[in-house]
Fold:
Amino acid sequence: MRILLSLPFLIAACTSGEHMPSCLDDAALKQLDAGWERAYLERDVAHLDRLLADEFIWVHTHASSIDTKTILLDRISSAEDWGILSRVQSDVDVRSLDNTAVVTGFTQVTRRNGSTRYTFMRTYVRTGGDCELLSNQTMAIPAGD
Structure:
């Protein structure tokens, strides 16, 4: 009897919009992460400002440089000659736990002076209904590997 009394409540909750797809769903998160790549390539500071958590940190190859949100946004908005022609992701995978997800894969970055393949690991955290990019770690892969 208890199940029957709960059934109308469950149906109402599931159809009320309260269970909208999470930004941490694999497909949604892959799309969000592709948006990171596009916004970085296009130097879309407004998009990145919304996406990046205030506590954001990006550790580059062998900690050759470390960017905070402020450093990254300043760097991409002030660079006169960006030099990045394309950023293409591959082998993207998502692992989630509670309100956190890690996206891994590869990005082929083409610049005027050549191309480099990177492996990446980005951590997204759901805050409220939205996901924010908390951290990014990239490592250049030596040519031939």
Observations:
- Residues 58 and 67 are 5 Å apart (CA to CA).
- Residues 1-20 have pLDDT under 50 and may be disordered.
